[in-house]
Amino acid sequence: MDAALGRVGASSDPFAAIVCSTRMPVVITNPREADNPIAFVNDAFCNLTGYSREESIGRNCRFLQGPETEPAKVALMRAAARSGKPLDLEVRNYRKDGTPFWNRLHMVPLHDASGDLIYFFASQLDVTGELDRLQFLERHNADLLTEKDARHQADAANAEKSRFLAVASHDIRQPLQSLVLLQGILARTIQGDPAERLVLRLGQTLESMSSMLNSLLDLNQVEAGAVRTNITEFSINDILDRLKDGFVYDAQAKGVLLRVVPCSLFVKSDRRLLEQMIRNLLANAIKYSPEGKVLVGCRRNGTALSLEVWDTGIGIPENAVETIFREYHQLDTQEGRSTRGLGLGLSIVHRFGNLLGHRIRVRSEVGKGSVFAIELLQAADSAPSASPVVRQFKGRGSPPLAEASSILLIEDDLETGEILQNLLGDEGYRVVLAHNGLEALELIEVEGMRPDIFVTDSKHETSRSGPEIATRLQGHLSAEIPVIILSGDASTHAAHGTGSQNAVRLTKPVKLRELTAAIQRSLSVSRSSRAASAPPKKGTDLSLNEATIFVIDDNRDVIDAMGSVIESAGGVVQAYASSEAFCAVYRPGRNSCLLLDAYLPGMSGLALLQKLREDGDVVPVIMITGASDVAMAVQAMKAGASDFIEKPVGGSDLIASLRNALTHMHSSEDLADRREKAASLVADLTVRQREIMAMVLAGHPSKNIAVDLGISQRTVENHRASIMRKTNTKSLPALARLALAANWDEQYVT
Ligand SMILES: Cc1cc2nc3c(=O)[nH]c(=O)nc-3n(C[C@H](O)[C@H](O)[C@H](O)COP(=O)(O)O)c2cc1C
């Protein structure tokens, strides 16, 4: 056999020929000789290992092993060789030139007819590529698993951090709320330096503490992916007004002149997040302006609107512009160091901007100042008018609402509850304190308390009994009762979670000034709405909050009076002294209404109304006419006025009329309904009554009608009384309104 093996290459045996010529490396060893030497190798083995046949034959196969050959595998091969057992494994081997390769070894013992082991047959396959790929995949897999594990851990840590922050924020806000209120009391009581100065500093410290807390929470929410955007269309003025009120004291205290240019355009964004963005920019502008001016205004650019905050502050060095939006970054300046903060303001602006798709632009020059711009989208049919107006209104003429108003305060924190009760009491309110929702319910159900306003800690909204109490309170209290929620959680979840339409949410800690302003505003809106003759439709907005009211009247006193009433009901007033001044800047938009004097010099109110309708503008117009000027009123209604009111204008009539016009503006269903009812009332009148009604509405006095119809004046007056009774109208304007709604025409007069 050994001799045969030596001759195998020349053999005519087909099996031997296959072994020789196959591309599979093959080795045959002789276990009957010492150390099991190689007796045969084929060409493929020589090609794989680089060793010639002469260099291989007579040696044990271990010469293929090297430094990385696994000892455990060598042991397996030894055991197999000794015991004459087959074996399959992958082992690290080396070629003659020293390059390593993975050898997939297949060892089989060969026995003779009597069962004695005579040879070992083996094939070696180079599987380096395959194993390298496998090893790579295994490593990659392991990396992925580690990464996944790390991500899991990070997510868990993040969730834990968010939970901690939410809980901590509520718990920190509570004592902070008490401190803010106590500081307010101190500021009022203490007089003279240095006490006043110290109390002021205490106030500033508390303010920076609350703003840091809010920043941390905002950032936490963004990082946790918990910020849900709520995109609506609203007037940018809503935000600007509030911010102006909020920052005016800070600016004054720093000697900075703050100017907020009003803008009645509507934008599409998330109201709360956008307000926070502008708030942060404004706070920075004031913080980094040792003196000088800060200006906030809007610039229109096609469908876009650039809201810009300008300051004449210290400016930002060119190399720092990139980094200012990073977390915890503060300009290394005297201002940055002296004012406490976390350097999160701009990072929040940046992150909210990304969330909302609002680009932020910065221009700055050291020593001259900076401009930060937020690029917004205008609402589809925004009403533009950033042009000059006769005057803007702000909170004048509000009646002393504190007087005799009663507040039901629900606060479970004893200290905060008592401080608030005392402070609001000092402001002139009658405050009843309930320590929880059930106590409040008892006050209402058992003791019959009917508060004018309801101030509550937000916990009662979310506690187990919260919804039940809320439902029961709603059942007992008028739906119009305003609610102020003092929230200990600034999270966006909480902000969106407010169920009630009439609820105002303030985040703790709230300053007494802010709270009383919110109470006054809510009370004022609620009173106007109660005073309004027409009860508003269920589910409609009770205030004029979203509406721009253009007042066009040449009488300053009328403008002043109406402006105050509208503002106190939450409307935004833009006043013009003439039709021409109005036309120069007006463009059609949404959620606006005109209060138009019928008798303006130059283009009259009626002419302006006709022009608007000719231009296809359906903006609601309420015509202001002289007393008993029914003819003009009818003419105005025919020209497309929504309503008319007579001078002198009463506050509640005005708000009712505005609400009616704004609410019914787009509701064709309502209009059809009103028309149908009016037509059936008119149809119920007798022919004579309709005849007299036509003459009354044409402006004829009863005496003339009597003469024209050849009846007594008394009979005419009797007819007039029955007309009013049958049509259920209490005044001539109301009758005219009804006639117009019924499509009144001379056809009724036969
Ligand atoms: C037929 C046969 C083929 C073998 N082929 C290889 C081989 O390709 N590579 C290798 O590392 N060892 C191979 N071996 C194993 C070694 O020859 C030897 O048995 C092993 O190193 C264990 O013995 P040792 O501990 O005395 O070195 C083979 C063994 C036999 C019987």
TrEMBL record:
Residues 87-139 form the PAC domain. Residues 678-743 form the HTH luxR-type domain. One of its GO terms (molecular function) is DNA binding. Keywords: DNA-binding, Kinase, Phosphoprotein, Plasmid, Transferase. One of its GO terms (biological process) is regulation of DNA-templated transcription. It comes from the Bacteria. It is an enzyme of class 2 (transferase). Its EC number is 2.7.13.3. Residues 11-84 form the PAS domain. Signal peptide: none annotated. It catalyses: ATP + protein L-histidine = ADP + protein N-phospho-L-histidine. PROSITE patterns: HIS_KIN (PS50109), HTH_LUXR_1 (PS00622), HTH_LUXR_2 (PS50043), PAC (PS50113), PAS (PS50112), RESPONSE_REGULATORY (PS50110). PANTHER family: HISTIDINE KINASE (PTHR43047:SF9), TWO-COMPONENT HISTIDINE PROTEIN KINASE (PTHR43047). This is histidine kinase. It comes from Lichenicola cladoniae.
